[in-house]
């Protein structure tokens, strides 16, 4: 078990490295590995580069174990993927969707996509060993149900697990989308960082927290709800009822609102043209205009970055993370946004908290949520099922 | 080791309970316990109430192991105590002090107090098995040195460990004062809560964080520096250089400033009298006036509570703790302060984060830092020295 988990988290290592990591003797490690290889759980593939002597074999989970399904439900999109036990993406489909349509409509579509993607890989429902799903709201991790999700009220207490259990024998694990982005980065990093944050900026703003090397979900599963941190006591009213939440002032819809206002006020020809052509202005369009030097677009991006940086400064003073990774739709807006966030954080946080702080876009990019869903599926499947395949 | 630590954290438990907690069989637990009793590390004392059959003995660390010293250095006070291995306070002394006088002056006084208190208990320097010290600034926990402490610049990089090593062979452990308050509460709770905060409001404002059942210190030891979270973008300038930090607007000195202003503006006879009599007004005086129904004093307390609640709302949205314990000098100001904090947090935080959130004064009260220093000393001594006494 421990050895399988370690293999999964180290994405391929040598026998020798594995033994060292677990504090086993070489002979104990060899015996254990031989047993797991016999059971078809581990495989030795390829050869690791070695500086001399016998070459060490590269260990990985046996691809014959089966496949994982990762699902990332965003506020405005669905992503479904079939993944190998090593999280290699075997098939992937992404399409727009509106989460407010409710679980009946969305999960029916997810179910169809799962079937199609499995067929495309030549796999069957029986070969699925674990399913991981991320959803854009607070989740009770124990029962896998959403709790009072502000963006998707129809999903409250709906059992995603029971719904998918009809087609699949594999266990289904549900978590908040940003927690899964954090879990995905933790896996990518092979747990080399212990304390970091992933901020997702899209329709809303959320935060995944890694603390002491594990995803932290809080006392009621609500940790990371940074979108409703106040950045302006006299700001506009948010859907949560309070004034000046960072989400209502700086997330995707706020950027659209500022851009439409700038276009209508005649402050930008580029934005006005976009509004005429498409009837609205997306954050991505503001990014395009900014890269072409549009002053109004630049000002909007700087304002959003500065407000998010102001929220982050509070969080950084409190949590003192080593890294903050920013992900979600906002990352496609360009480098000016990141620069504005950084400036705002470094100006407002204490020197000791920021001395070694790195702020960057998420390395896994748009696949972060999907990879995280795969990590959840594999990790929890290993825990739930024990050694037996 | 594990058994000694478990005994320490459970503050006395039966053999049977101990075996269950560690997942040992009864016979394995009995053999281990017998060995530790023989070595003089564990003692069986008193009889636990039992619902029938043989009575289970109560296990505890042997008091003959030696004594601990706990030291709590605040911005304006020193507390030193001699404690038993079960953290019973054997002798305690508290006196005013100014941390800005520097480590030479303060630690010389601490050394004298340690000697006096040991004599009072009939103990010698040789019997001291561990020393724990809390200081009001950020600490590099590995080397026990303060890092850029804003309130006490003369302490920067000073080695408290080396200083005390001259008199004592016992290991010395240094941590931030609020981290130790959190550790003290964790011990009092016998680790029954996993995710909670301790906020200290005195000359400054700091926060101790317990996450996944352990004190969390952050990537650079700066976690919990909530005093410099901004609550008013146009507020007064703080010593850190930024505007509107909660510390400059709501900690002890801010309460004094508001009270003096109210007295001088003729808004309160009670506060004006206090100012005439003492030349200043302490937070405690504002508390007295408030309890006698003084409207200006009430308004000041409500303002401070509301600002601290506003900062806490951000932290609660991010961290979703089960409990927030408020400690430090402010607790003596009375119940109106706590009510104002609660109102402000419940109004500004999301329903899910606050549904089961408890906000109360620290149960350990003014002894929290001292008890925490004792817990640190005992816990780290057990870890460093292993089983041998």
Q: Your description of this structure?
A:
Two copies of one chain form a homodimer. With 389 residues, chain A is an alpha/beta fold. Chain A folds into three domains: 2-64, Arc Repressor Mutant, subunit A (Orthogonal Bundle), CATH 1.10.10.10; 66-186 and 367-385, Nucleotidyltransferase, domain 5 (2-Layer Sandwich); 189-365, Nucleotidyltransferase, domain 5 (2-Layer Sandwich), CATH 3.30.420. Helix content of chain A is 42%, strand content 20%. Chain A has 14 helices and 15 strands. In chain A, the strands form four sheets. In chain A, strands 6-5-4-7-10 form a five-stranded mixed β-sheet, sandwiched between helices. Chain A has a five-stranded mixed β-sheet with strand order 13-12-11-14-15, sandwiched between helices. The longest helix of chain A is centred in the C-terminal third of the chain and has 25 residues, at 295-319. The mean pLDDT of chain A is 89. Chains A and B meet through strand 12, helix 11 and helix 13 of A and strand 12, helix 11 and helix 13 of B.
